[in-house]
Design brief:
The structure holds two protein chains of two kinds. Chain A is mainly α. Chain A contains three helices and no strands. Chain A has one domain: Helix Hairpins. The C terminus of chain A is likely disordered. Chain B is 66% helix and 0% strand. Classes of the chains: A mainly alpha, B mainly alpha. At the A-B interface, helix 1, helix 2 and helix 3 of A face helix 1, helix 2, helix 3, helix 4 and helix 5 of B.
Chain lengths: 107, 265
């Protein structure tokens, strides 16, 4: 194994790794459900970018990137949207259900 | 070299916006930060040469997710500030940094040669009848996955339908100006929606051979419906009714997405 060359894919790969770390930190440390959901989506964005870097490095056969990881990311973004919509509904439901502990909960 | 500086700038900006989103003082600011994050991430995707993903990220990851998060930010009370203890913060920070460092190591020490299925995709693409390789993977090679993805969307809709309050259904999105009034929003809805509907259908159609697809196109169509709804022009026929004739329109509409609306119990 040799060190990756300093190119766009490596730069965005490092960015993705840092985004995952930031998002993970936010999911654990933040107190509001909505803020945790946001941090979870930030984390997801980082994971998707890492997929994009893998796709970029797998470029070949005339494609600018390996189409399989890119297709997986498209599926992932749609599923993340669905999960976020459901989570928001749950958060609103909780906020209406019990007064003071509305969006705090958890921590 | 210039390109690398540009990439570095986009990467730093993305990380900065993400950190700001996590540290933002109030929920609404955090949601706005998240939408900005989605848009700047779209730039990163185009720089990685993944235009299909960039389109999806812009339409769904930033746009549609941003819209539903803004509604939630307006409805849910801001979280009480409960800072965890210093020791917990240091521990979580160290563990998160360790995860980021581990992923960075994988990025910096990639397997040689890089794993790729590009050649296999190319070999059989002609038999799928699609010109866009990503469309080919989504619609032919992984057709069952994409079908199940649609089922996931449907299940999420059932979940939202079951758990959401009845009063929130049929409510107009965002602040409601009086229908028929002049102003930027009704004009915007009149000018943009017809073109947007054509673009949405085009994105679905063109997805066979070029960047595009059904989820991306459908999201643009949904955005047009939301825009028309905000301007009081959708659903058609309702716009002429006064607010008193339609209590569902009046009661749930948050007065402003910026301030948390007072909820009726």
């Amino acid at each position: 194994m040799s060190l990756a060359p300093l190119d766009a894919a490596t730069l965005y790969g490092l960015m993705g790794a840092i985004l995952v770390g930031l998002g993970l930190h936010g999911v654990v440390i933040l107190s509001g459900f909505l803020r945790r959901l946001l941090a979870f989506n930030l984390l997801g964005g980082g994971v998707f970018i890492l997929f994009g870097v893998i796709a970029r490095r797998g470029a070949g056969a005339g494609f600018s990137g390996d189409p399989v990881p890119q297709a997986l990311v498209i599926t992932g973004i749609v599923v993340a949207f669905c999960a976020t919509a459901l989570a928001i509904t749950l958060i609103e439901w909780l906020a209406e259900d019990d007064g003071d502990d509305a969006s705090g909960g958890g921590s | 070299m210039i390109a690398l500086v540009l990439d570095g700038g986009i990467a730093l900006l993305t990380i900065g916006i993400a950190a700001w989103t996590i540290r933002a003082a109030d929920d609404f600011a955090a949601v706005v930060g998240f939408v900005a994050y989605g848009l700047i991430l779209t730039l990163a995707w185009t720089r990685l040469g993944a235009y299909d993903v960039a389109l999806t990220e812009a339409a769904i990851g930033g746009g549609a997710t941003g819209v539903i998060l803004m509604r939630a930010g307006a409805r849910v009370k801001p979280a009480p500030v409960a800072r965890p203890s210093k020791r917990a913060r240091i521990l979580v920070g160290a563990l998160s940094a360790a995860v980021a460092a581990g992923l960075s190591a994988i990025v910096l020490l990639p397997p040689q040669p890089a794993p790729s299925l590009a050649l296999e995709v190319r070999q059989h693409l002609a038999s799928t009848g699609l010109g866009n390789p990503i469309g080919g993977v989504l619609m032919a090679y992984r057709a069952a996955d994409t079908f199940l993805e649609t089922v996931v969307v449907l299940l999420a809709l059932f979940g939202v339908w079951s758990l959401g309050r009845d009063a929130h259904w049929g409510g107009r999105a965002g602040p409601a100006p009086r229908p028929g009034e002049g102003g930027a929003l009704p004009l915007f809805a009149r000018v943009l929606v017809p073109a947007g509907i054509v673009i949405g259908i085009y994105i679905v159609w063109v997805g066979a051979d070029a960047p595009g697809g059904k989820f991306q196109g459908a999201t643009i169509l949904a955005a047009m419906a939301i825009l028309a709804g905000m301007a009081g022009r959708y659903p058609p026929g309702r716009s002429s009714l006064s607010a008193s004739a339609l209590p569902a329109f009046r009661s749930p509409a948050p007065s402003s997405p910026i301030r948390p609306a007072s909820r009726s119990r």
